[in-house]
Design brief:
Helices cover 77% and strands 3% of the residues. The chain has helices at residues 17-31, 35-72, 74-77, 86-123, and strands at 80-81, 84-85.
């Protein structure tokens, strides 16, 4: 009987080597702040700004419009739900889950914009 057999050496096969060259080129464009990199980053910034402005408009209209609604229709301000007046319920209690939901949507949209840029860089 001979001693233990030597373990075969592992061989690493890298099928993504060609793709990595393309990714490195696009990342280099961004890191070196060339004109192409600037355009990519500006596009991302524009997309992020558009998301922020849209969601800010939603918050401003819905939360900012409630006091105007109660001023225009004073009868609504006297309505009670669950022992609380409607303005207190909407502005003091339900506004926080609404803001949390808007923040969650903002994060999801921002991550999707960043993923779109990453996918574009990977595909070029």
């Amino acid at each position: 009987m001979s001693g233990p057999e030597p373990e075969p050496q592992r061989v690493r096969i890298d099928l993504a080597a060609r793709r990595r060259v393309r990714v490195d080129r696009a990342l280099r464009e961004i890191e070196e702040q060339t004109r192409v990199g600037e355009v990519l980053v500006e596009g991302l910034i524009r997309a992020q700004l558009a998301v922020a402005l849209r969601l800010s408009a939603v918050v401003a209209v819905l939360l900012g419009g409630l006091p105007l609604l109660f001023a225009a229709a004073p009868g609504l301000a006297e309505v009670e739900v669950l022992g609380m007046r409607l303005p207190w319920l909407l502005l003091g209690v339900l506004a926080y889950p609404f803001l949390f939901a808007v923040a969650w949507v903002h994060v999801r949209q921002a991550e999707r914009n960043e993923q779109d840029l990453t996918d574009f860089v990977d595909s070029s």
